[in-house]
Amino acid sequence: MATVSEWIEGARPRTLPNAIAPVVAGVGAAIALDAFSWWRSLLALLVSLSLIIGVNFANDYSDGIRGTDEHRVGPLRLVGSGAANPKAVLRAALTSLGLAGVLGLTLVALSGYWWLLAMGALCILGAWFYTGGKKPYGYYGLGELAVFVFFGLAGVLGTVYVQAGRVSWDALGCAVAVGSFSMAVLVANNLRDIPTDIESGKHTLATRMGDGGTRKLYLTLVTVPYALTVLMGVWHPLLFITFVTAPLLLKPIKAVGGGGKGRELIPALRDTGMAMLAWAVLSAVALAL
User: Fold this and answer.
1) For this UniProt entry, which residues form the secretion signal (predicted)?
2) Dihedrals φ, ψ of 133, to 5°?
3) Has this prediction a pTM greater than 0.90?
């Protein structure tokens, strides 16, 4: 039986910024449109958190029963380590994804934008089939694209739309920025796992691009939000305050660009996620003002 602390670690709390940042940025864009609703924002946040916890448990379960996690470097894997029964982890995944579905349905019903049910269904299916099913798309190099779509575009634009009934160029800029940050977090994760993924037959984008190409991709992705800051700052000069978050990326850039491997890359995931969350908070404040 896994302990409470092991279950918490299995939920991968360090990935929570990927769920919080898009909603925060979306709230800022909604305020800029004079359409902020605290309860719709809260429901959107709970949906996003439930989704990412669900995908983390689903990933743990699916990779664990395939044997992909047997020699994985990084946070505890409940199934791969033998700390928890696979069926228990599966129940945790389905419960989290089910909760995301119920909360999402509630948000859609109260807002009246019923077509968003299709987007919600795609998010839940995307969470499961990332590593689940006979042909998980995460094993074919599509994980980063999915993260960009679900925790970038859908997360930010969905948060804005359920409040304003429309989106804006500011919202789109924030969506691309947060999506790029989220991709960078996953790229750093998959860069760390290249040796074990190759051994287990998991063909991520990192295994396809190779070590050098993956490092260049990471460095490119973390520059995108700041390039967008410059562009959006022409109309919203207060957005330039987000540049104070850049120093949070110095250590991860050094680790990735300097050839760090294995456990040396673990802090890069955390620091990239924190930079993303800080950028989202400050951009939201700037747009709100």
Assistant:
1) none
2) 85, 180
3) yes
Residue holding tokens 């709970």? 46
From 45, 71, 287, select the one nearest 199 (Cα to Cα).
71
SS3 67: coil
In the predicted structure, residue 73 carries a pLDDT above the cut 80: no
Name the residue among 130, 127, 126, 107 with its Cα closest to residue 117: 107
Greatest extent of the chain over all pairs of C-alpha atoms, in Å: 55
Interval 71-80 mean pLDDT: 74
b/e map 79-95, b = 16+ CB within 10 Å:
bbbebbebebbbebbee
Q: Summarize pLDDT for 223-267 with one digit per residue, the tens.
A: 999 999 999 999 999 999 999 999 999 999 999 999 988 888 888
